[in-house]
Design brief:
Number of strands: 10
Number of domains: 1
CATH architecture: Alpha-Beta Complex
CATH class: Alpha Beta
Strand order of the largest sheet: 1-2-3-5-7-10
Structural class: alpha/beta
Distance between the termini: 41 Å
Bound molecules: coenzyme A
Strand content: 15-25%
Number of helices: 11
Order of helices and strands: EEHEEHHEEHEEHHEHEHHHH
């Protein structure tokens, strides 16, 4: 598989760490595939009661690897990223996310599927889909406006506006903001506490809080079609080339 994902089961919690700090933990196909395998195994394992995500180094994740987007665009239901998004949507066990730094693209949209999100003071959230000539994914075009309102979601999606930890907490995207050196201890303790709760009660509570997933699944499918179409468009290629060449994109 890949060293870029670390997994470990401790105190009945599956710890998943994005471990590619030199690339700000940008997620490759191989990394998604590895996470999917670990999440599916955890769902089937009564010994695992919660899943905790974090990033190594100073980033949570800078989102999808842009070279992968350019060289082997993930298209369709079999793409590891699509499977990852479905794992998030269908997760029965509680998901805790410890956002230790920048969370871009899927780094932000995955938080919308989490149950508890702790962020360090250094966390910055960004969803620059339009900057990349893409569209939102992971059901976020439904979930983010629902959570923070259309006007603020439009700033994030359309302008690519960055949101700091405190603001994200005020908006309800984050449960609590912590000092950097307290983040992991607090998140680990919360995940371990969840792992000791009555599992069926926890699962039913999560289901009730999430409500009917069908609308989110339908939106994800719709986003997926548009995302795939955009991925192979000249404007996305220009946006990715501009990022790699460290220049402004020119959309004509
Ligand atoms: N895909 C591939 N490589 C990425 C990446 C990504 N999503 N994000 C960062 N990297 C790479 C950079 O190219 C750079 O590589 P290099 O050292 O070989 O040049 C390295 O990670 C460090 O990134 P850098 O941009 O120098 O760090 P920074 O602290 O100045 O900025 C980010 C961090 C995350 C704000 C910035 O890298 C960024 O905007 N990345 C793109 C995010 C993105 O658009 N994600 C997709 C969303 S759908």
């Amino acid at each position: 598989m890949t060293d870029h994902i670390q997994t470990e089961i401790r105190d009945r919690v599956l710890h998943i760490t994005f471990n590619r700090p030199d690339k700000k933990n940008a997620l490759t196909h191989a990394m998604y595939a590895c996470i999917v395998e670990a999440m599916r195994a955890a769902e089937d394992d009564d010994g695992v009661r919660a899943i905790l995500f974090t990033g190594a180094g100073d980033a949570f994740t800078s989102g999808n690897d842009l070279a992968d987007f350019r060289d082997s665009p993930p298209l369709g239901a079999d793409a590891p990223v699509t499977q990852f998004l479905h794992c998030l949507l269908q997760a029965k066990k509680p998901l805790v996310m410890a956002v230790n730094g920048i969370a871009v693209g899927v780094g932000l949209t995955m938080l919308l599927h989490a149950d508890i999100v702790y962020a360090s003071e250094a966390a910055v959230l960004q969803a620059p889909f339009v900057d990349l000539a893409l569209v939102p994914e992971a059901g976020s075009s439904l979930l983010l406006p629902r959570l923070i309102g259309h006007a603020r979601a439009a700033e994030m999606f359309m302008l690519g506006t960055k949101v700091g930890a405190e603001e994200a907490c005020t908006m309800g995207l984050v449960s609590r903001v912590l000092k950097a050196d307290e983040l992991m201890a607090t998140a680990t303790k919360a995940a371990a506490a969840l792992a000791k709760k009555a599992p069926r009660s926890l699962m039913l509570t999560k289901q009730l809080m999430r409500g009917d997933n069908d609308a989110v699944a339908a939106r994800m499918a719709e986003e997926g079609k548009l995302f795939s179409k955009q991925l192979t468009s000249p404007e996305v290629l220009e946006a990715i080339m501009a990022f790699m060449q460290k220049r402004e994109p020119n959309f004509g």
